[in-house]
Amino acid sequence: MQDPRRATPRTDQVLADPQVAAAVTRLGRPVVKRAVTAALERCRTGEVDASQVVGVALAALPLYPTSLRPVINATGVVVHTNLGRAPLSDAAREALQVAAGTNDVELDLATGRRGRRGAATLAALAAAVPDAGEVHVVNNGAAALALATCALAMGRTVVVARGELVEIGDGFRIPELLESVGATLREVGTTNRVRLSDYSDAIDESTAFVLKVHPSNFRVEGFTSSVPISELSTLPVPVIVDLGSGLLAPHPRLPDEPDAATVLRAGASLVTASGDKLLGGPQCGLLLGDRDLVDRLRRFPFARAVRVDKLTLAALEATLTGPPTPVAAALASRPEDLLLRASAIASALTEHDASAVRSEAAVGGGGAPGVVLESAAVSLPADLAAPLRQLDPAVVGHVVRGRLLLDLIAVPAEFDEAIVEAVRRVAKDG
Ligand SMILES: *Cc1c(COP(=O)(O)O)cnc(C)c1O
């Protein structure tokens, strides 16, 4: 038998293979070269044949030029923090393509002079919330609140109800965020109750503003009271509302979820919110409110440190002006339609112990805590959960009482066939 070391091709021969060369163009040379080197090593030991080296190397390559992997969100959580919050609309994705290259983000092509960065995006946001005198966009919701606080309350106090001292996730807390940019908190009321007089008693010459934080990830029930914005707005200092969710106008399916238009109309001076929760856009932070106040924030030096990039501006514009977002589509979905889809998927998978069931979905980290969204799911054996997560795209559901539920509320219908194929594939392998 021939010595496999002699039959092993040279690295440059393998790299010259058209498919390998195409992979170098797509993924970069170091990654491809590592895969080729590993395949050649296996060839030298006789584990793979010389004719298989290219195939083995290609199979070992990462699927994408990013380590992020696409996921079908069958968790039943519409805005899933661990899955990247809001998926972008096709319009926003197309906008990203344009934004990714060289473009006129700060150039007026008509005059050849410098143009206002993000003008069209800000105009679209202003048009979406006519009650806001002025609007501005920063990197995320926390940055919006940090900018407002450091511009208005550095070395001063912010009055906030004890029941609204929220931890937003990953260990980050709103009160600590405010203190980290130089504000002193003046907590009022108790965990469950606060009155207008608590606020007015706490206000003095050091007060910069009253902050109302929407508890977007928990609910306090029972003997509770909070002060409506219409009453807070009678106080002699600005009222800033950290809305979180990014809902711009009331949503029929989320009647208790506050929205920017309603909050501003009730007398808030400024609203801060996230762009990638219920608004369904890219990660960003929205500042909406009094013209003078927003202008001040926009020009404050720290604003430059939380400035959004061209990708965000483009995706946000398309989110605001384009067709309904996937988040909006999920919230508008009807349980009966979802059940029909689940039944169709389940009947294609009867030999794999699949059935269609009604389910309860949630908005998720984006807001509306405790709200149950009626939905439907495909119920499968729980041991399929792990292999389904290994596919491309990965299918992520949730296990309830020994069954894997693939909830369809956040799955666009065009993925139904992919779910059928994914289950067939892992059930066959298993
Ligand atoms: C989500 C949220 C934030 C933080 O927004 P990010 O966009 O994640 O920075 C702040 N406040 C509230 C009430 C939130 O729900």
UniProtKB/TrEMBL annotation:
EC class name: transferase
Superkingdom, taxonomy of origin: Bacteria
Recorded GO MF terms: transferase activity
Residues annotated as domain L-seryl-tRNA selenium transferase N-terminal: 6-44
Pathway: Aminoacyl-tRNA biosynthesis; selenocysteinyl-tRNA(Sec) biosynthesis; selenocysteinyl-tRNA(Sec) from L-seryl-tRNA(Sec) (bacterial route): step 1/1
UniProt keyword terms in alphabetical order: Cytoplasm, Protein biosynthesis, Pyridoxal phosphate, Selenium, Transferase
Coiled coil regions, renumbered to chain: none
Compartment list: Cytoplasm
Cofactor(s) needed: pyridoxal 5'-phosphate
Primary localisation category: cytoplasm
Signal peptide, first to last residue: none
Protein family (similarity comment): Belongs to the SelA family.
Listed HAMAP family: SelA (MF_00423)
Role played: Converts seryl-tRNA(Sec) to selenocysteinyl-tRNA(Sec) required for selenoprotein biosynthesis.
Protein name: L-seryl-tRNA(Sec) selenium transferase
Origin species: Kribbella alba
Record lineage: Bacteria, Bacillati, Actinomycetota, Actinomycetes, Propionibacteriales
